[in-house]
Amino acid sequence: MSQEIKIEKKASEVIQPESQEDARQAISSKKDLSGAVLSGMKLDNLNAVGAILRKTDLSGADLSKGLLVNPNFYRASLLGASMQNTVLLGGDLVRSSFKQSNLPNSAFIGVDAENASFEQANLRNAGFVGANLQGTNFSNANLKGSRLANLDVTDADFTGADLTGARTYNVDWTQAKVPPSPIPEPFVKLRTWVWSVLLGGLLGIITLLIYALIRKKKK
User: Among 46, 94, 96, 219, which is disulfide-ready with 73 (CB 3.0 to 4.6 Å)?
Assistant: First the structure.
């Protein structure tokens, strides 16, 4: 409740970008766009750290081919939005709505998506790694070919979701409210030390991406 009160704004207090370029600059400079209306805006190829988009209306917006580090999409609406080939590294997606959105080949790494909705979303070949998906709604979502690793799917709903060709690692489907049917096949079984090396390499790549993004922003 305290969070709700804190981010609730009067209409006169909402920062409302007048153009797509204004919106891009505001997001990149971490301006608080809570409650702003950015629906239908073309915001592709956007690299941003700590974007503040709580309760923001991004329905129908294009956020493809971006790198968003620790974004805040708390209760944001991305109904029908496009986020193809985008990487979300960390961040708050709690109670956000990606219903009917187009998210193929995107990666959600370390995000908190508790009680978020991906209902009827296109998540073909997408990846969820180290994410909190408690109570998340994936009803009738397209998760074909997706990669799912180290996830908390407690009370998550996969009713009617298509996980054909999906692969998983360290996911306890028995904790889901409605697990997928059939349960996806696991990754190729490797020794623990091999997984440690692979995950270490992934973290190294992510660190380099963050460093490059911060260095670019400073320049």
Answer: 96
